[in-house]
Design brief:
With 488 residues, the protein is an alpha/beta fold. The protein is 34% helix and 21% strand. The longest helix has 16 residues, at 266-281.
């Protein structure tokens, strides 16, 4: 990416619509009501042959206090300072407002390159607003309709000469090759090492006000995400690329997920679905709990969702700095975890304080360990020796008098680990025996917490010639006569 472009402007002028068009996906939430976007959202943009990073920002408002709008404005001003080019967007149908004049003056002082865009400019109704935009003193406005894709050629013409100036600053992001290992049985094992081009994907999920954005800001060591005492500040699933203890990571901050019955507004439904999509893209999911009210029904649903999606799970308990009797609380948490989430038995339970940063080193170690286990690979020879021992200790049952023979076992996939057992009567293997094998795999091969998939596949031991037609008598006699002496 050769440069960074920040899209700024008043609320509801169409910034997120243009952002989605430039990245080619519906990454940012779009709605008719103003103020939908609150955090900064980055994306890899493409415009003809240009490749650059685009930042979607919250709508600028004339407030400077510590209110939610004030914090949103400060975050947007940070984006202006970070970006190489600012795209200042106004609404051509509304015309130039006093707020636009104030923000234009701010951009002239803070940004070296400002491009003025008059959005919603389709039709004659917008002509007056486009002409009025000249009064901002930012040069000729680009007439655009982000919703319909009009004006992108003019935007390209403005960006092209600036892109040439920034091209020499582009960083070479060539991906590192995977590390191939050969084990003693001759099976090839591929270990994917996180790189800048393919960072480790981590999603932080939980209920509203659990401290997800505060935790990520602490990891980044900067106030990159909007935080505050209000519940439900985060709306978009924001992804941020960083290096945490020399490990390249893409961390997703998600909107708080409430019980489905309580989610009534269309906007909150969009936010929750955006968070669910982040879980599907992630490799490791950090389920963040509130130490004051841990393991509520919604927490359990979120953790179960991550397990069903086959993601490595780390459970983190936040706000540990305000706990008094920590030993007793930790013991109770572990008991509740084992009882309420048996499908994640052995998953790491880490106590942290997003406010002070305490426990972040343990959280990092837990994430890396969970990722390693999620990628674990066991050779077929090891698995079959293990399966023989498991069957000897506890043979498979014989439902309806049919003895189940387990012939061999192999690992079919990783991420998460998936195993196939070839056996007779696979449909007769009870779930309890499958759980026995899965729990044995966890313990004997040191795979705590990660989802494990186990499939039973049939392998018939019947006569291979059964059902084939017999040879006619004439051919049989002929064969017998030619093959040897026949006694009547």
């Amino acid at each position: 990416m050769s440069f960074t472009l920040a899209i700024v402007g008043r609320p509801n002028v169409g910034k997120s619509t243009l952002f989605n068009r430039l990245v080619g996906k519906r990454l940012a939430l779009v709605d008719d009501q103003p103020g939908v976007t609150r955090d900064l959202r980055e994306g890899a943009a493409r415009l003809a042959d240009l490749r650059f990073t685009v930042i979607d920002t919250a709508g600028l408002e004339e407030v400077t206090d510590d209110s939610l709008q004030g914090r949103m404005r400060r975050l947007t001003e940070r984006a202006v300072d970070m970006a190489d080019i600012c795209l200042f967007m106004v609404d051509a149908r509304v015309g130039i407002t006093p707020s636009d004049l104030v923000f234009a003056d701010i951009l002239r002082k803070r940004s070296a390159h400002v491009i003025l865009v008059a959005n919603k400019a389709e039709g004659a109704a917008a002509d007056a607003g486009v002409i009025e935009a000249y009064s901002l003193g930012l040069g000729e406005p680009i007439r655009m309709s982000a919703e319909h894709g009009e004006g992108l050629n003019d935007l390209y013409s403005h960006l092209m000469p600036l892109a040439d100036d920034f091209a020499e600053r582009a960083v070479d992001d060539a991906p590192e090759v995977d590390v191939d290992l050969d084990d003693e049985d001759g099976e090839e094992i591929t270990v994917r090492v996180p790189t800048r081009a393919r960072p480790l994907q981590v999603a932080v999920v939980g209920r509203p006000n659990a401290g997800k954005s505060t935790l990520i800001n602490q990891i980044l060591k900067e106030d990159r995400l909007l935080t505050g005492p209000e519940a439900g500040i985060t709306r978009d699933a924001i992804s941020l690329i960083t290096e945490w203890d020399d490990v390249p990571m893409r961390i997703f901050d998600t909107a708080g997920m409430r019980k489905k019955a309580k989610v009534q507004e269309k906007l909150e439904k969009l936010s929750v679905s955006d968070g669910l999509r982040a879980v599907k893209f992630a490799e490791v999911v950090v389920v963040l709990l509130d130490a004051e009210i841990p393991f509520e029904q919604q927490d359990l649903r979120i953790a179960d969702l991550a397990e069903r999606e086959g993601r490595a799970v780390v459970v983190a308990v936040n706000k540990w700095d305000i706990e008094d009797d920590r030993q007793a609380k930790l013991k109770a948490l572990k008991e509740s975890f084992e009882r309420l989430l048996p499908q994640l038995r052995g998953a790491p339970l880490i106590t942290v304080s997003a406010k002070t940063g305490r426990g972040l080193d343990r959280l990092h170690q837990a994430i890396m360990r969970a990722y390693e286990v999620w990628n674990s690979r066991i050779t077929t020879a090891q698995l079959n020796r293990w399966l023989s021992g498991m069957m000897e200790a506890h043979p498979p049952p014989a439902p309806q008098g049919k003895r189940i023979k387990m012939r061999y076992m192999t690992q079919a996939k990783t991420r998460p680990p998936g195993f196939v057992v070839m056996c007779s009567h696979p449909d007769k293997v009870p779930d309890s025996y499958s759980r026995y094998l899965v729990n044995g795999l966890r313990v004997d091969f040191d795979m705590p917490g990660t989802p494990i998939r186990l499939w039973m596949r049939g392998q018939s031991d019947a006569n291979p010639y059964k059902g084939r037609k017999k040879a006619p008598p004439s051919k049989l006699r002929k064969h017998t006569a030619s093959g040897g002496r026949r006694k009547d």
